[in-house]
Input
Amino acid sequence: MSAAINDSAAAGVLVVDDDEMLLGLVRRILEASGFEVTTAGTGEAGLAEARRARPALAILDVNLPGLSGYEVCRALKEDQGAELPIMFLSGERTESYDRVAGLMLGADDYLTKPFAPDELLARARCLMRRGLAARSAGGGSLTSREREVLQLLAEGRTQHEIARSLVIAPKTCAKHIERILEKLKVHSRAQAVAVAFREELVAARR
Output
């Protein structure tokens, strides 16, 4: 196993499925190959685990109680960033249009049940390598929401003003700002704004 795979394995995989037998199977397959695995049985629990553990890969069932896999995918991309790789794993939505819908919503891969363990592992490793590469790419990986936050920062808005404007919680806004600083490799909001104007990541002040 390469160093990149070892790094991603250490970061962990989040698996969300309400089928306990399937959840256990996927967990055993991944853990046997050295991955750290966190599981959840509902979309809401999956989002909470993702915020706690910040996984390197999320594997989601489509049909979940409460929030659907599609909704969880959208929320994870919004909260964790577009560079988080997400794979759908579905035994019911197996038609081509189901796969297209999942990919259009932001998923990076779509695997149907039943599946071969080797194929699951190969796809997981590929997605994690891609995710690690995206996370190391810096400012080019800003999500659309992060760009919105950066634009409002550039306009001189405070954190609370940005949160009200985007109808998000102040804590969520703070997380977005933290990730912006990290991706732009700067240490302050002022530096982030300077980089944003220099690299034309935001529109010029009017």
In short: The beta strands are 13-16, 37-40, 57-60, 86-90, 109-112. The domain at 3-136 is CATH 3.40.50.2300 (Rossmann fold).
